[in-house]
Amino acid sequence: MKTVKKAIIPAAGLGTRFLPATKAMPKEMLPIVDKPTIQYIVEEAIESGIEDIIIVTGKGKRAIEDHFDNNFELEDNLVKKEKFELLEKVKQPSKVDIHYIRQKEPKGLGHAVWCARKFIGDEPFAVLLGDDIVQAEKPCLKQLMDQFDETQSSVIGVQQVPDEETHRYGIIDPLTIEGRRYQVSNFVEKPEQGTAPSNLAIMGRYILTPEIFGFLDRQETGAGGEIQLTDAIQKLNEIQNVYAYDFEGKRYDVGEKLGFVKTTVDMALENEEIKEELYKYLAKKIKEQKMTV
Ligand code: G1P
After folding, report:
1. Domain parsing of the chain, residue ranges
2. Mutate to test the pocket of ligand 1, among 17, 28, 202 (most ligand atoms within 8 A of CB)
3. 250, 136 in Cβ contact below 8 A?
4. 57, 62, 282, 293: most buried, per Cβ within 10 A?
5. Cα–Cα distance, 269 to 277 (Å, whole number)
6. Ligand 1 within 6 A of CB of 230
């Protein structure tokens, strides 16, 4: 029986939605309260039992490598000041090895995944997208890995979105359902408004078999002129089962401004250090707002 041990995190995007913040800083390093978004993703992979992560980076992404490295000067300073709680926060995860590869041209998500093919070899693997953070009792990726253990087939994480948002996502055309798992007849990347086959959207978590690389090798472009992972998944689905799994948990979209701010507020309201004061502040703001409306 095969198991999933390796994960790819594509992090080569330009982050144009967050300019000017992302002019000199990778969007993956933007913090939600006090942790960069990519750290939430790495922690989910570790909690799911992943042993090796490869981050696909691009130009100007050096800060990501520095973040997941030891910083002896800082650690030494914290030891001397006896700030042990902070020391724990900056220490690097020891349960996983993190590797890096560069995507030399921005040719799309499918191409970014293809860049990691030599690292993956002939094994099933996970892909986690940094724009989606999921809070769940059982980590989202672990839910998909359990499905893989059962089916030995590719599994794609999906959740429902409102009809008017389907054009922003990869959408599945479901055939049959068993529990939360769907058999799929078609995977469509960003269908035009009003043409989506369902409102079950791909949410940035994938378990894929290595046969996907045979399709990515073809470098065919799709929606937006990019090499789309969803298109290769559809081709894979024609030769072997690719399931969709409606995972449990709350998904946050940190890839766009409003989603990012909402995530920040939600996570801050769960943070012991600041939640009480923040709640009071927000309550005051809402009261003021009501007075002026
Ligand atoms: C990517 C995928 C899309 C998926 C989405 C999830 O799109 O191509 O299938 O639904 O992530 O966030 P992007 O948002 O990078 O354009």
Report:
1. 6-255, 257-293
2. 202
3. yes
4. 57
5. 9
6. yes
